[in-house]
Design brief:
- The chain has 249 residues and is α/β, with parallel strands linked by helices.
- Helix content is 35%, strand content 18%.
- An eight-stranded mixed beta sheet has the order 3-2-1-4-5-6-7-8, sandwiched between helices.
- Helix 1 packs across helix 6 and helix 4 runs parallel beside helix 5.
- The longest helix has 25 residues.
C-alpha cells in the first residue's frame, strides 16, 4: 500500500458509530483521552453520564432510516470514523424470523452504510476509517450464517472504500480489524459463555488505537484473536493481513 503522511495535528475529532458499550465504548474512551472531540452515536448516547464524561452524544437507531437520516454528521476534518456498532445472533437460518433478518441487516450493514455515506459526503478533509469487523467473517461457525455473512460484508465494503477515499483525499486511511471473542456479556445475551476465556475490550481497544495512530499506509487489516493456551486464555494474539474463509466442514 502507498505510504502516506500522518494525519496532521489538526485531526481533533472522532466519530464512533456504536460507542456506548463494549469495544465501541472503550475506543471512544481512547479517542477522548487522546484529546479528540469524540462524538458517540448510539441508542443510549443521551444518557446523562455520556455528556458528563466529555463525549458529544448523538441518539441514533441504525435500524431506523429516519433516525439515520436525521443524525448530525458535520465535523471539522481531518477526522477518525470508527464503525463499531454490532449485535450477535446465533440461530439456524431456517428458524430466523423475517423481522430478525431485517433488523440485524440494518444494524450491522445498511444502517451504518447510510450514515457513513453522509459522513464521507460531508467530510471537508481526509478521513481515517476504522471498521471493527470480526473473525467470524472468515472463521467456520455453526448456526451463525447470517451474522457471519454480514460481518464479512462489512469488511468487504470497507476494503472497497479504500480507492474512493484515497481518490478524494490522498492522505486518507482505512483500517479493518477482525477481533475474536470479547468479554461483553450483553453482546452474547442468552448464551452460556465463560467470559474468563474471552479478551478484555479495554485491552483490545488499546491495541487498535495504537495501531491506528501508528499506521503509515493507506490500508491495514489486522486480526486480534484470543489465546486458548492453558494459563493464557483470552490473551490477545495480533497478526496482520486478511484471512481466507475456512471451509464449512
Amino acid at each position: 500500500m502507498t505510504e502516506v503522511n500522518s494525519l496532521p495535528p489538526g485531526a481533533r475529532t472522532a466519530l464512533v458509530i456504536g460507542g456506548t458499550r463494549g469495544l465501541g465504548r472503550q475506543l471512544a474512551l481512547r479517542t477522548r483521552d487522546s484529546g479528540l472531540t469524540t462524538h458517540v452515536y448510539g441508542r443510549s448516547a443521551h444518557r446523562t453520564e455520556e455528556a458528563d464524561q466529555g463525549f458529544v452524544p448523538h441518539e441514533l437507531d441504525l435500524c431506523d432510516p429516519v433516525s439515520v437520516a436525521a443524525a448530525p454528521v458535520t465535523a471539522p476534518g481531518p477526522l477518525y470514523v470508527f464503525w463499531v456498532a454490532g449485535a450477535f445472533l446465533k440461530k439456524p437460518l431456517a428458524r430466523t424470523a423475517d423481522e430478525d433478518i431485517e433488523a440485524l441487516t440494518r444494524l450491522l450493514l445498511t444502517g451504518p452504510l447510510r450514515l457513513l455515506r453522509r459522513i464521507l459526503d460531508a467530510a471537508p478533509a481526509q478521513v481515517h476509517l476504522v471498521t471493527i469487523a470480526s473473525s467470524s467473517g472468515w472463521r467456520r461457525r455453526e448456526n451463525e450464517a447470517l451474522y457471519c455473512a454480514l460481518k464479512a460484508a462489512q469488511a468487504t465494503v470497507t476494503r472497497g472504500l479504500v480507492p474512493e477515499l484515497v481518490e478524494d483525499h490522498p492522505a486518507s486511511r482505512v483500517t479493518v480489524v477482525n477481533p475474536g471473542g470479547l468479554a461483553v456479556p450483553d453482546f452474547h445475551s442468552g448464551l452460556e459463555i465463560d467470559y474468563g476465556t474471552m479478551m478484555d475490550p479495554a485491552e483490545v481497544a488499546g491495541i487498535i488505537w495504537r495501531t491506528v495512530r501508528e499506521q503509515t499506509t493507506s490500508y491495514t487489516e489486522m486480526q486480534i484473536l484470543r489465546s486458548r493456551e492453558p494459563g493464557r486464555e483470552g490473551v490477545p494474539l495480533v497478526s496482520f493481513g486478511a484471512r481466507a474463509p475456512e471451509p464449512p466442514l
